[in-house]
Design goal:
Rossmann fold, 10 strands, alpha/beta, two-stranded antiparallel sheet, binds thiamine diphosphate
Length: 289
């Protein structure tokens, strides 16, 4: 086992300005602890984050980071991974960023199976822009954009991930940092696309789903009560339990080959380490002119 790293190595000099009690603090602690437990160092990790309160994670975790465009967290993460597949790449963003604005990328990222981790801060609302309805918010909930209650029902991100071919699908809770850290350790260690849907408390714009509301409904998955290799069983879990019993843990995992493992261009060395100066482009340029 590799030696562990002190989670404080991932601290920055800035103090986050998330609201006091925001679930993002739990996600941040869990991530630093998981990276530390895996013995990773800041220069070995790169974050790609979306726009939103959640997207600030790239600023407040000491590692490489790119805070990109709204909904484009996943293509940026894919580019980073392909340029240097030796980096541990973590994509993070809100449900607005990844499941509303950037939904198309999510489906293809699951299917493609590049080796990186995608963490969704799922608070059921657009928080940074002060509380508009998102695609995972409760049907009937009154928000800034749904003054008479949301008409559309929410959907299950875990079910969509399983249906789209993700090779690791899990769900965690921002109020249980140790358990979330354990999920992150498994997700980051997984060789392929690992999706973690984190039920995140938003103390300002989604108060009905408070810490006690979640705690009353949380049900922990263990190898004794759930077989993570059973895709149909995982799908049943992901589709069921809405607001009654909320399962947390690893829903599904398989070992299919990661996308980049099949790329001959990366077999010799990461692209960033390969010399490009000596490549003769004359034939290509002649063909194009
Ligand atoms: C292309 C684009 N559309 C809209 C916005 C405005 N905008 C900024 S953050 C945000 C919502 C963020 O919500 P979410 O991803 O759920 O993150 P949270 O703030 O809840 O963490 C929106 C719509 C933007 N910055 N860029």
């Amino acid at each position: 086992m590799s030696p562990t790293t002190e989670p404080a190595k991932f601290n920055t000099l800035q103090t986050p300005n998330w609201c006091p009690g925001c679930g993002n603090f739990g996600l941040q602690s869990a991530l630093k602890k998981a990276l530390g437990q895996l013995g990773l160092l800041p220069h070995q990790v790169c974050l790609s984050t979306g726009i939103g309160c959640s997207g600030k994670m790239a600023h407040w975790v000491h590692a490489y980071g790119l805070h990109g465009l709204h909904g484009r967290t996943l293509p940026v993460a894919a580019g980073i991974k392909l340029a240097n597949h030796e980096l541990t790449v973590i994509a993070e963003g809100g449900d607005g960023d990844g499941l509303s604005e950037g939904m198309g990328h999510f489906i293809h990222a699951c299917r493609r199976n590049l080796d990186f981790t995608y963490i969704i801060h799922n608070n059921g609302v657009f928080s940074l822009t002060t509380g508009q309805a998102s695609s995972t918010g409760r049907q009937g909930r009154e928000t800034a954009t749904t003054p008479h209650g949301a008409i559309e029902p929410p959907f299950s991100p875990t079910a969509l991930a399983i249906a789209s071919g993700a090779s690791f699908v899990a769900r965690g809770f921002s109020g249980d940092v140790e358990h979330l850290k354990d999920i992150y350790v498994q997700a980051i260690s997984h060789k392929g696309f690992a999706f973690v849907d984190v039920m995140q408390v938003c103390v300002t714009y989604n108060r009905e789903k408070s810490y006690p509301w979640y705690q009353d409904r949380i049900h922990k998955l263990t190898p004794d009560n759930h077989d993570a290799q059973d895709r149909n069983g995982a799908m049943a879990l992901a589709m069921g339990g809405t607001d009654e019993q909320l399962s947390v843990g690893v829903f599904y995992q398989d070992n299919r080959q990661a996308y980049e493992a099949a790329l001959p261009q990366l077999a010799v060395a990461p692209l960033v380490d390969q010399p490009i100066g000596g490549v003769d482009l004359t034939a290509l340029m002649n063909e194009l002119t």
